[in-house]
Every structure is written in C-alpha cells, then in structure tokens.
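Quick note —
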Amino acid sequence: MPVLLQDGHDVICCVRDRERFQPPELASAGVQVLEVDFLKPETLRAIPADVDAAYYLIHSMASPTGDFAQLEAKAARHFVETLRGTRARQLIYLSGIVNQPQLSKHLRSRQQVEQILAGAGIPLTTLRAGIIVGSGSASFEIIRDLVEKLPIMVAPRWLHTRCQPIAIRNVVAFLAGVLLRPETYDASYDIGGPDILSYKEMLLQFAQVRGLKRTIIVVPVMTPRLSSYWLYFVTATSYPLACHLVDSMKVEVVGAPNELDSLLGIELIPYKEAIGMAFDKIEQNEVVSSWKDALATPVLHKGLAQYIEVPVKGCFKDQRRIQVADSEQTLDRIWAIGGQTGWYYGNWLWALRGLMDQVVGGVGLRRGRRSPTRIKAGDALDFWRVLLASRSQKRLLLYAEMKLPGEAWLEFRLLPDNTLEQTATFRPLGIWGRLYWYAVLPFHGYIFQGMIRQLAKV
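Predicted structure written out below.
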C-alpha cells in the first residue's frame, strides 16, 4: 500500500476490522478504508464500481476454525462476483509455486483460488512465490526462532527439500510492477530470488548472517505429526499453521524461469542480503505488518470494538490503585510491557502460564510484540491482543487470547489525579470458569500487586 501511494495511486483498502487498521500518515488523502468480510457477500456492496485494478491477497491457512481451503474458495468466489460489477481492467493474485505433480493442501488451495479468479472475465496476473524473506513473514520468523534458539537441531528429513526464497522487497516490486501492464494480462509468473537452497542450507546461511554457529542433524524417523509439534514448541507458530507448513515443506518450490524481472527492471536480491535487510527493519522498529497480527481466537472476528466495553455483570475483578510520581514515565513502562521487557514482576510465573497455555494448544508467550516501545490496537502482545492503546486517554486495554474457561481483559488507566488503576476482569464460562478463577487467585495477589508497584515505581 505505501508503494502504491508513493506512485500516485488512490487505494481502496478492504479490512475486516477498521479498529485494527492504521494506515501510514501519507495515506490520509489517498486511502479509502472499507470494512468488509469476503465470507459475507452482503458486506461487499460498499466496494465501488469505479476501480481500475484489484489485488487479491487473502489467505486463510492460519485460520483457527474451519477448513481453510473451503474458506479460501468461498472468499474467492465472492470476490469474483463483486469484481464483475466493477470496471476493473486487471486482477492481480499472489499465489504459491505449484510446479510439482503432488502438492500439499496449502498449495492445492492456492491453485484452486487461481482457477476461480481466472473465471472472473477480468484479465488475471498471477505471481507465484515460495518462501518470502522479510520481517513479519511467518517463514522468516520460524527460521529465526529455530536458528536463534537451538545451537544443535535434530530435524526431520524435509530439511533436504529445495526451495527458492524471495525477498519481500522483490515481491512488492513485482506486485507494483505488473499493475496495468497489458503484456502481463492473463499470464502467470513464478517469482523467486537468485538462490535455490534446501531448508537446511537456508538455516545455516541464516546462522552465518547472524554470526551463530549451528549444527543440524537430519533424521528420517520424524513423522509429520512429530515435525509439527517440533515446530509448534520451538517456534512462535500455532499448531494448525505448523501442520500446514510441514505438509508444504515436503514439496519442492522452485520457480520456472521467466523474464519478468528483466521486463520490470527488478534486480533480484540474494537470500543472505534479504536476511540483512529484514534485520535492518527489525532493529529500526519498522516492521510494517506481521503474520502474528492474525487473530488467535475466532471470538475477536466480530471486531475489536465489540470488546472495548469491559463487562461488569457476572464477572470477577482484581482492581488495584496506586499513586504515581511521574505519569509520563509510568505510561512509558505500560507501553513497553510484555515481549522482551516482560511483565515487571513474577516473570517466571508468566512464563509458566505461557508454557501451560502452549501445552493445551494456545499461543503462549512466544509471539512477543512487534515493537519494544510502540503499540496500537490490533497488535499481538504475548498471549494478549491489544484492544485499545491511547496515550491521550492514558489507557491500555488487552484481551486474552490464551486458552481459558471464559474471557479475560487486562486494563491500565492513568486517572487525572495521577492514580494508576490496574484492572483484571474475568467473565467465567460455567463452573469450570469459576473454579479456575479461585484456583489462580493466590497468584493474582502476588503478580498483580507486584506489577502495579513496579509500574508506579513506588
């Protein structure tokens, strides 16, 4: 989107939840934001007919509910029906490389969506990519976790599978470059970087860039299920996503040669250089988007605004107040909570709670946070989701995405008299929810009292 705006285009941006979308400052005049859900065709009526081209970037592999292939097909059909009522001259789709006779469910779904889009009666340009290397990419973050956490890896045999990684900067250049280029209409292109590597080579080269010495032992006995659990416990990925990724990692994703890079004047970036660029963005806190932004609970698909009003009836609350000496300093601490900073008090208990959550299939604390100091609505924050982050209101509101027999909110608010109010709210689900609250009550007394004192530095 920033590249399209810099090129002078007006962009109509479709999002499911306006509260989770904050376009860059330069977008104020050039972006029209529509709140739609492509699984609900009645919401698509807001899309105007006067459009020149449409990008289709919808994938559902990380969906916590339903069959993702069916969801993707349904969304694509609704998209096609909507586009037929517009004046669009081109449809651009980012897909996966599908050159092998036997494909994973993930890649078969990408292929099926491409076939659906091709039936729209609008010229289709398909760009097929393998692993995308860039800050916020699921593949990049998984490789990073494996390399940085494990000095010695005992890994499954799919590490010998070859792939052709591509830098995110190149992907964006291709997406922008084919826009309204008639010579790319009704055509598909495999896009990849200059290097063809096995997953093992990718891990070892990643380690070289990071100045780490790593040993990888490949064993033939690790089943797909064990491989999925291995990825799930070592990396920040969810278990469903780990299963789909393992299924895809058994398939070679090497692109067929073409001249699209020459046609568009794009210089392909080598794998190691792409890693360095990604860490430049990370170190400058400029990660624009992340796969971790995908919601971990279907409850929040109704929209963040539905949960900003914290319930009162039928809830348990732990509310504490304390006077602060320096409100701005306290706000800075609140805005840095979680991730590498931790939770200021009883971090070993937070880590234990994260591990327990992970054991039962939850997200745990592995997601961390995108920036150590900046935070906005929609961000993932360990096993919480940010509902509201307003410095002007001096209020941070979090919603729990951990596995719970109920729903939980955690709120920090600075009152006008420089009082810090910290409130944990739990709405139990049945008797198990009530038993859970009383079971953790002693730990709350220890953690929450210590946390508020550290935030206020009393």
